[in-house]
Design a protein that fits this description.
mainly alpha; 8 helices
Length: about 180
Amino acid sequence: MLALRTQQVLGYETGVADVVDPLAGSYYVEALTDEIEADAAALIDRIDELGGAVRAIEAGFPQREIDEAAYRYARGVDDGSVATVGVNRFLSDAGTDDEVLEIDPDLESDQVRLLAERRAARDNVGVAAALGAVTRTARGTDNLLYPIKDALILGATVGEITEALLPVFGRYGAS
C-alpha cells in the first residue's frame, strides 16, 4: 500500500504526469523555475510597494498571503481540483490497522498537581522578578534569550513567559 500511495502521490500531486517527458531538455524544470522566479519577483515588488519588509509585516501582508494560499489549497482539495492521494483521490474502503493513541484521563489532573507542586517549591518572588525582566527586555532592544533563560532556571513555565511577553507583542490572531 505504501508503494502504491507513493506512486499515486508522484503521479497525481506533483504534476509529473502532466507532460510527456518532464525532464526532456530540462524544459519543464526550467519552465517551473521561471514561474517560481516570476511569482517571487511579483511578491518582492508588492512588498516594495508597501514600503519594505518591515512595513509589509506590520500591515499583515505576509500572514494574509499565507492565510489566503492555505485557504485556496484547502478549497482545491475540497472541490477536487487539487489531488491529494488518500484524501480526495484513491480513497480506500479498507480499514487501517493503525493504533489510536488513547490519552489517560487522569493525565490532566496529574499535570495540574505537578504544576502546583512545582510552583510551591520554587522561589515565586524570584520568578516574578525574572518575568518582569523578560517584559522590560522585550520593550527594549536587548537580547531576550538571557532573561528568558534566567526565568526558566528559576522555575518559570513557558506559559508564564508567554504571558510576560503578551503586553509587548500581543497575541496572534488571523487577519
